Structures are given as structure tokens and as C-alpha cells.
Protein: Anthranilate phosphoribosyltransferase
Organism: Facklamia hominis
Amino acid sequence: DALRGGDPAYNADVARRIWAGELEGPIRDAVILNSAAAIAISRGLGGRPLKEAMADSIEEVKETLQSGLCLDIVTAA
């Protein structure tokens, strides 16, 4: 239930708050894990264990979300 979305307005608000670095909790955690997995796999592991690549990618995603850069990019268009 913690990951269940709502109507379009609710979902848009949640996305905006995540991209702005304003939302904590299981939805943000799911976004971080999915984004980190995509980054780690797209870059290739380079002989590193998946756990190490994921840890690096998770930190990168957290920093990017917290900076508000995601919201800046989305709203710049």
C-alpha cells in the first residue's frame, strides 16, 4: 500500500516532490533503487560486483535528487 499511487494530480505532486528532494519514504526509496539499477547496468559493471556498482549508483541518485537538479531539468522544458 505504501507504493500505491493515486489520481494523476496526486502522482504528479509525488513525482515533483521526489525530483525536488522534498519527499522521503518508500516511494522515494523505490525511485532510487530503480534509477540506481538502470544506471549501474547501463554503465556496465566493469568487473565490479553488482553490490558495489549499486552502492555507488544509489549515492549518485540520492545526491542528484537532493540537489533539486531533476526538478530543474523537468521544469526547464
Q: What stands out?
A: The mean pLDDT is 94. Residues 19 and 73 are 9 Å apart (CA to CA).
